[in-house]
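Chapter review: from sequence to fold.
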Amino acid sequence: MQDAIFIAASPGTSWPLTIEEFEVRIRERYPEVLTSAKYEPVGDHDYLAFEVDLDGERRHGSYFDRSHLILSDAPPAFWTDTIVWFLALLPAGTPAVAMVETNPDTVPVPPGATADGVRELLDALAEAE
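The token string follows.
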């Protein structure tokens, strides 16, 4: 399955990570990343769209200023290391929730989640659709 994955700030909160800071960090992780600043007028949100070539395929993502990360074009297991890396950019204990495109239910991501823990969480969400 290739649901889009959403990792978001818990409702009523925001993250301290700006688009500019995220861009610096994603370039450190994926030096060949292609990025472009975007604006989503319906929700009045700025975001950074990015593309990386991983495992021979083009993968896409978006980071919305201080609020959420979207990853697509791969099954959840593919993105778990990136999600754990991303959550480590936030201050320890920063609350986050996860959801997949085909299931609108959100679940908290446990603080300090490992790649295996994130994979299990996303798999459970995908199965519950």
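Two observations follow directly from the output. Helices lie at 19-29, 76-89, 115-127. Residues 9 and 67 are 5 Å apart (CA to CA).
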